[in-house]
UniProtKB/TrEMBL annotation, chains A, B, C, D:
Its cofactor is NAD(+). GO terms for biological process: one-carbon metabolic process; S-adenosylmethionine cycle. The keyword Hydrolase applies. The keyword Hydrolase applies. This is Adenosylhomocysteinase. GO terms for molecular function: adenosylhomocysteinase activity. Binds 1 NAD(+) per subunit. Belongs to the adenosylhomocysteinase family. GO terms for cellular component: cytosol. It is an enzyme of class 3 (hydrolase). Pathway: Amino-acid biosynthesis; L-homocysteine biosynthesis; L-homocysteine from S-adenosyl-L-homocysteine: step 1/1.
Length: 485, 485, 485, 485
């Protein structure tokens, strides 16, 4: 796409694929609202007092229908919002169109190039002369990364006059990041420094981004407070587990229509995401083999009747491979060469480096046949045998299907709203330092409670006597912080 | 669409949505071939001898990718083929295009009107001056019905000069059938009679069509031999059960993206289709309630931990309703009025009369909001509450997703190929009278055996001594006819 | 035990282990009655008219608590009853005691020798001077066998004066049968012939006995009518499947206390019994591998995510082996030698020849260590490695636990009561010839219906219009005879 | 039993039910050793260096076969051991006999009175003139409680001369504790004070005991260091979850033989224990309803398709009730009165106050019918309807079956051994203060690793590059402390 910003009649900026899909997006947003009781409760509870009045929020998070309900919850609470996606394939264009038309500045479309991706991220952070953002909603940490790298470069530039050199790295994507920063430096050598100063904090959505934050905290380089939303129980034990249990088979079926029953499936990693994937595949009738580095998670897999082996043991007999590790270099091109014809290879971890796409793309004589968008058959010259790679190694549930369903995202996103409120409300109290925090247990329990009614559940109430017996308040929180659920 | 027949450069007739999708269709057909070992084995085993040389086969069966592999198996064995779909929403347009371009005369597109549907059926039966078909592959029995009604009308016309009166029936679809027959009578008053005379037989795919055939056999009105493919074990206990277990959640997810976990789902009917649906919903985390008329099936549901109640008991608390009964008038508009807002209502039984679409469409003041094709929200005027109806009450797995996956359809369709071969090979021996037959057990076992290798299975072999001990041949068949599996 | 008949104060004969357990037996019988609604309904419906008045019924069927409720249902309907078990380990001594004291002549105890077993069978058939039995309830066909062999010997004796020669067979158990017949011949050379003449018929409980009956029918040697209760849907698809799903893990746990989760379990045979066993093991967290000869059953196993291999493939890596085939020579001593230390080997098929106990017992230098009754560790001299064999290779669920639970046996035994009533009521009408019959569908459905209320289920009722549409009576039966459920 | 201490020929004290069961116990211990690879590895790794040389260990923990392997691991590492059970019904008498004969001083039998129970606890703590214990293995905290109460009384006595007054409490069991302390005070007013001084620490097994420890830590009354073994991942997420998933149905089946399939089961509490119980019941075919106070756990139950209601909602329609809460007063006599006839009521939480046994026992006119030990039918006078209570409201898996299986207990007990080693090795370093500690992550991972080989698992190894990428050491630990698994 030609990279220029467009404007709505009301003057709000945007760049989306097709504004004519806005009506369709609106209809699906309305359906999603019924499935997202946590967010709708936030609108009811906090909307009248407009707590985000004056707050400018930038989000970098998959621009889906569910995210649309999140965005409109933030605006319903008074915020001004700019948004980009955190993955080049995850945007639902009708969702982007509806939000761009009705509610917030959106820069996102399905199938961005990496160049376009970072342009969009820059736009979402670009609040113009008035400055901003005040708050960031991040997923994977790319918005946070850009600011941190920007500040680093500006400091270096101020001290030494040196600008970042994109050729200093092999990583193609990081070259783009450095180029963007370099190109901006001369026109405005204090842009990211101003951002950093204004920023109240970030709330981070996912395991990968959280890991980055803890590393920065450990290194002492974290520039603003961060709330780790991922480790709310109602996030990591829900969206990661139940969300993937839903969206992995959804992605497999939409991309390949392959029968899962009877197949041998390998799930690399048995964390929350891997547990959800393995459960879904097993329930669909596959025979599931898990690979793990962690003996505890491996023993959990065994207790569920799953086999635990290494990838090498099974690479030539399995039909479906799913990476969920959050690590890199899990399935290499040498593995792929040994796979059965039409073996399916996909990733549901945050980043696209679990599968060696670079090795595959540069394999001499390999042939890529695009069956349909996000579904490619790669044929090796020696064997004429092909493998099917989904979403080019990126998050297959967002690339090939529509991501996690609304209900479970309502849990995650209610945590986001609460985290953003917490950061904003405490912006002047000094409660949050430049560290990583998790939300307190009672808020976690509240998020869950907001989702019970929709499913017809009734909670039992503790008597005072019982509460005293187990040493908890009658209204909770009911568990110690280390409780594992 | 304008209803005129088109021709390929080679002169073969067709009518499809978009011939430019043929390449895409071809790619998916090639993927499906790898998943359909039974059909590919038929090509290997029978292809060289061209057993269908000279046979003209008309098919009326969902025009999907899997059916494309069936059609090209029939042509690989020497047959000439004309095809239509047996459902207005089930055609995959890229499959139709690929077959029309490369292999057979196809008349089918997704989203036919009923008028168009019966025009397509007529075309598939219209072999021109040379006459035909010799064989029919039927699904639901509409091709068979048209010939039977045609013959009846021609006999009446010959005797009394009377033509069928479309106004003699309330059923809108049957009015169309009578109109077609009436309109054809004058120009060619012996068309269906000639067809009947030539016809070697029909092989019928599904429960509903089989029921019609047995009724005709009982009434003595069946005009040619029929093989009941549905009741091959490798069909009804596989495609109905495992196929629906796969395609029901697939349809739900593509149509609505709704989270199944935590929901209350009602499955009406606990036959093979209902068992597959209930298993899929339970495994996805729904709480499943079954409705049944048959106490044995009800007791089976209970043994799986499912609740068995009547629709009236649960209509206002469930989130998802699926009809699988093969009967009519299961969910009426009065039920729908009582449902929760955005309850999902869908059917996976063959015909569209399980859900009272007529009652819904004619409900005073009801408002239909099409979210996307095959996904409609219907809002009742009194409550402003809406329900979501999939595929207009027709087969939701074909209307909203892509039907059953290739592997399980390979079982069903290998039975079809074997049945067609059997009818054709015995066409002059008198083996088959005007009755309904099932395939012998050893062929059923053969179909299964052809599908084991793909899944890495190894069978145990009986010793002669063991075979004698249980009184079966070493090579099978291993079970008595009444065995239930 | 010393083999002499004892008598109650009322003069009824019996031989049980310990009459002092009668009170305990009575308490458990009362519990079981609440779980057996089908049998209790028979008492309510038929008790007042005393349909079995004058009928003498011999039963040869595991003498358990559940069977006690069956026996007392027969007596509540007017019958006089004599009973033995059909397995040397399956008797529950407290059940035997309660029935012997209160209701019927019982000859059965847990841990009979084969000699004792056949003595008990003879006693159960010995109605004294008045003659009898009129009816037989058989399980596995041993009572039926004894009469058939007896008649054969008496006919030979009458013709030629020759008596059976026990040495004419290698089979140790059949030698005992021949000895019994031989020893009785001289004192009463017409005993079995008189029995045969009087006998109205037999109702047979299980797959193995049914197979014998069909063989006799095919050979023309069947001496009286037989009803195949096993193939009632409410028997073979319930007791075989759901009964074993319950009682297999029960037997494993009571015998070995071994953790099932994480283990590799091999199930030989995937019929109804194998399906129940595999489901139970999978659900308990084992990784299950199936061995099969029948490709259809093998494909069913694959569709449930189970691996299908041969015993040879897995013999040295599995932890638990279960035979369910109904065939012989499944696990041979050469297999057992290759197993892991403390691998568990057990059988849940009717006869004890699935596991090569003879080969094991006679293996040179093998050492048997009895952990507790029915749980033996057999140590091979070469490896010092041992395997654990349950119930000496006999039905492990009855030898190591208490067999199937009451509720599912209520289904099976209600079929028995109905079959016995049918034979008795039609004894003078000639309805039943010397053939094998199954109960009509409407009675099968009735059995199921009697069990729904207890589980809180509510059936849906067909309207007349719906019934006509699918061509069934409003009250059922709802399915054609070939329907597989 | 008459309460006097017996002695083995070697002079070791004991009191068990029946020493003649020692051989049987030994055989089962040998079987268990094969299933407990973690403990056996400890013997191999640490045995040669005799790290517990000189250590006197008192254990208060269910005296089962698995505990026997733990005890003999402690002695194999050089310890001297005295043991009692922590539950009046949980002792397996053959295990107690084998240990008493061969390895340690045991005071335990199945079916102790409360009086006997505390006498046994006192004996296990009574190391005679030489003093002791040095270490305590506790389960539920009763040994720890007795010492704390003893010290409190001795301090009070020293200060004021006052002795504890058993009538100061309503709690019958606590009256016994106070009586024991009071009676000992005069003869030895410093017994517990000496114990406290010598004690290196306690390792606590279960949730309930841990809760008590944290309360004491919070109050500042904890007298010695404590290691919380329960919250090792390889304990609470394994034994509590997978152990109960195994042993709940085991207990139900042994006690009642009731068919679980088709039943409605209520699980009170959805913590780790409740999750295991609910999974087992669901898999066995029950319809499971959960009661919960914690919205997060409730939402987890919903995501698995379980219904969440209050006990009041379902008390009159459920068939099976299981308490797993760790709280008190869950099922009261007023609930029991409303239950269906023969509803089963049982508890699998540590203490027996989840079920209102006192209310039941004192209900006017109630009648108790003991079916067999640990299985009582209680009949209410008004309705003549009875409920079945297992193990008198105590841990039903230990009272009615044999507790958790060896393999999962090997995980728990390997943590115990490691905790005891840690306390002992650091006894002079001051590493452990009078606080509650959990074991470090790498030891937790080690425990898991020791159990993988037995199940045939193979771990994947991280490359250095991958380890750096996710910021963990190549050898682990792999997860942050807050990770929930």
């Amino acid at each position: 796409m030609a990279l220029f910003v467009e404007k709505t009649t009301s003057g709000r900026e945007y760049k989306v694929k097709d504004m004519s899909q806005a009506d369709f997006g609106r209809l699906e947003i309305e359906l999603a609202e019924v499935e997202m009781p946590g967010l709708m409760s936030c609108r009811t509870e906090f909307g009248p007092s407009q707590p985000f009045k004056g707050a400018k929020i930038t989000g970098s998070l998959h621009m889906t229908i569910q995210t649309a309900v999140l965005i409109e919850t933030l605006t319903a609470l008074g915020a001004e919002v700019r948004w980009c996606s955190c993955n080049i394939f995850s945007t639902q264009d009708h969702a982007a169109a509806a939000i761009a038309r009705d509610s917030a500045a959106v820069f996102a479309w399905k199938g961005e190039t990496l160049q376009e991706y970072w342009w969009c991220t820059e736009r979402a952070l670009d609040w113009g002369p008035g400055g901003g953002p005040d708050l960031i909603v991040d997923d994977g940490g790319d918005a946070t990364l850009l600011i941190h790298e920007g500040v680093k470069a500006e400091e270096e530039y101020e001290k030494t006059g040196k600008v970042p050199d994109p050729n200093s790295t092999d990583n193609a994507e990081f070259q783009i990041v450095l180029t963007i920063i370099r190109d901006g430096l001369k026109s405005d050598p204090k842009k990211y420094t101003r951002m950093k100063k204004r920023l109240v904090g970030v709330s981070e959505e996912t395991t990968t981004g959280v890991k980055r934050l803890y590393q920065m905290q450990a290194n002492g380089t974290l520039l603003f407070p961060a709330i780790n939303v991922n480790d709310s129980v109602t996030k990591s034990k829900f969206d990661n587990l139940y969300g993937c249990r839903h969206s992995l088979p959804d992605g497999l079926m939409r991309a390949t229509d392959v029968m899962i029953a009877g197949k041998v499936a390998v799930v690399a990693g048995y964390g929350d995401v891997g547990k959800g994937c393995a459960a879904a595949l097993k329930q669909a009738g596959a025979r599931v083999i898990v690979t793990e580095i962690d003996p505890i998670c491996a023993l959990q897999a065994l207790m569920e009747g799953l086999q635990v082996l290494t990838l090498e043991d099974v690479v030539s007999e399995a039909d479906i491979f799913v990476t969920t590790t959050g690590n890199k270099d899990i399935i290499m091109v040498d593995h792929m060469k040994k796979m059965k014809n039409n073996a399916i290879v996909c990733n549901i971890g945050h980043f696209d480096n679990e599968i060696d796409m670079h090795g595959l793309e540069t394999y001499p004589g390999v042939k890529r046949i695009t069956i349909k968008p996000q579904t490619d058959r790669w044929v090796f010259p020696e064997t004429k045998s092909g493998i099917i790679v989904l979403a080019e190694g990126r998050l297959m549930n967002l690339g090939c299907a529509t991501g996690h369903p609304s209900f479970v995202m309502s849990c995650s996103f209610t945590n986001q709203v609460i985290a953003q409120l917490e950061l904003w409300n405490e912006r002047k109290t000094g409660k949050y330092e430049k560290k990583v925090y998790v939300l307190p247990k009672h808020l976690d329990e509240k998020v869950a409670a907001l989702h019970l009614g929709k499913l017809g559940a009734k909670l039992t109430k503790l008597s005072k006597d019982q509460a005293d017996y187990i040493s908890v308040p009658v209204e909770g929180p009911y568990k110690p912080p280390h409780y594992r659920y």
